[in-house]
Amino acid sequence: MQAHERIMAVAFFCFYAELNDFLPRQKRGVSICHEFTERASVKDMIESFGVPHPEVYSIEVNSNFVDFTYIVQDKDNINVYPISASAIKPSVSVQPQPDIKSFVLDIHLGKLANSLRLLGFDTLYRNDYEDKELARVSSSENRILLTRDKGLLMRSMVVYGYYVRQTDPNKQIVELIQRFNLFKHVAPFRRCIRCNGMLSQVNKESVISEIPESVKELNHEFHRCLSCSQIYWKGSHYDKLHSFINGILSKAESVEC
Ligand SMILES: [Zn+2]
After folding, report:
1. Is residue 95 part of a domain?
2. Claim to verify: residue 73 and residue 107 sit in the same structural domain
3. Would the pLDDT of 137 be above 90?
4. What's residue 53's pLDDT?
5. What's the whole-number mean pLDDT along residues 205-222?
6. How confident is the model at residue 1 (pLDDT cuts 50, 70, 90)?
7. What is the 3-state secondary structure (H, E, C) of 40-52?
8. Are residues 75 and 112 in the same domain?
9. What's the gap in Å between 163 CA and the centre of ligand 1?
């Protein structure tokens, strides 16, 4: 053997449950034989299959749970689990799993951002956020980064993130309620849809000069955004919003059962 030749090693990977969404059909639910020559962490090897690290809950190597820094060895048997598998098979997470209910969304998920705010969740969204900024905000503010960009989730700075599977915004919100157990935390009309600020109930007199005549006569309950001062009232669109929210919740509940 020449001195410059690298030794070929092999590891066997198996990805569980929804982690298979990231794999080509022939690699789903089977043991994948992975040849390698370079020293690499298990995190880098998992991502080389296209599975973003924030989607991984636990990693089992030869029956021991390891974290992302583990260096893969020749003939390792590696099982990779998402969070849903933790309910069936007790495991040790690769990182602490705080009960986070706040989010930052990439620029393509504007409608989902609106829905999350409507349901009262702390949701950062701007249509000019760049990938670097999204990763930084997610990391520094401990927010779950929501995106359909796998490359963005693979940025090393991102700790908590999720690849939104659905493309229809109405299905996306149902998917999120189920994935993050948001059902019991829904608090409609608590957040400003425009800026994510908190709403505070105000009396009619304090807003009377800022609202249209027709609104003055028909409405008695008003809220103001503490951040951008936008005024909200239970106008004609309120019933539409209410049925929209009830529709989302009943869909999420029926799938949950
Ligand atoms: Zn606002």
Report:
1. no
2. no
3. yes
4. 98
5. 88
6. very low
7. CEHHHHHHHCCCC
8. no
9. 27
Does residue 148 share a domain with residue 110? yes
pTM, full prediction: 0.89
Q: How far is the CA of 223 from the centre of ligand 1 (A)?
A: 11
Q: Which of these three, 154, 186, 218, is where a domain ends?
A: 186
Quote the CA–CA distance of 60 and 66 in Å, as a whole number.
6
Task: List the one residue out of 110, 91, 128 whose CA is nearest residue 164.
Answer: 110
The contacts of residue 107 (CB under 8 Å, 6+ apart) are 126, 127, 128, 129
C-alpha of residue 118 to centroid of ligand 1, in Å: 12
Spatial separation of the C-alpha atoms in residues 180 and 183, rounded to whole Å: 8
- C-alpha of residue 198 to centroid of ligand 1, in Å: 7
Domain that holds residue 164: 103-186
The mean pLDDT of the chain is 91
Asked whether residue 59 is domain-assigned, the answer is: yes
SS3 category, 162: strand
